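Researcher: Re-running this chain for the archive, since the previous output was lost when a drive failed. Same request as before.
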Amino acid sequence: MIFVIDVGNTNITMGVFDGDEIIAKFRLTTQINRTSDEYGLILTDLLNINKVGIDAIDTVIISSVVPRVMYSLTSSIKKYLGLTPIIVEVGIKTGIKIPIPNPKEVGADRVADAVGAYELYGGPVLVADFGTANKYDLITEDGSLIAAVTCPGLKMSANAMWSGTAKLPEVEIALPDTILAKDTVTSMQAGLVFGCIGQTEYIIKRMLKEAGLNKCTVVATGGLGRIIANNTDIIDVYDPDLLLKGLKFIADKNSKHK
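Model: Regenerated structure tokens:
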């Protein structure tokens, strides 16, 4: 079994693959100050609760955009699972080419998304990942990640709006029935969600136009991706587990246990 872990700015998302099937998924809030023992206890408890035998796991892979978490997390895996995790970083086998001046600038999560999308849907493919930040990544037919656009995510935009104003309340991120809002809560929801849909449609169309692509599969993922994907025709597929699947593909390419 392969244990995949993605350390994001907001959450640590995890999954266990038995072959090509995800048999368990769980997530933690990302906290900098956890010790390796705390991580060890949490991970082993989560695996046990999900009836995943620790001895059945032969590979662990981690992608992370939060470097300060990595020492405690990797130490906990070595201590409690008895495995040295594969880390998604420059030099690892991914099957994706990154023809930019500094490949280190591309986050490990974006690489995993790109691998998942290219392996599952072929190229050209554009990934729209709606998380803490909204990320739009374009992968060509030959598997080259040639462009990346980054914007504030829905929650980040919402937090900025209600923390930076005196009278705007904290609201649920939800799609209102109409953009013709008549009260404060629905006006904020309309601005956030319809604004994100508009952002998504414009950015994707502009990326494909400048890349000279008439046909391209557009795959959405991320926690808030469903609300966007369900309300625009520009997205072809919503795959909530794209990043985890990408990590599994990378693990397959780098694991000694094939």
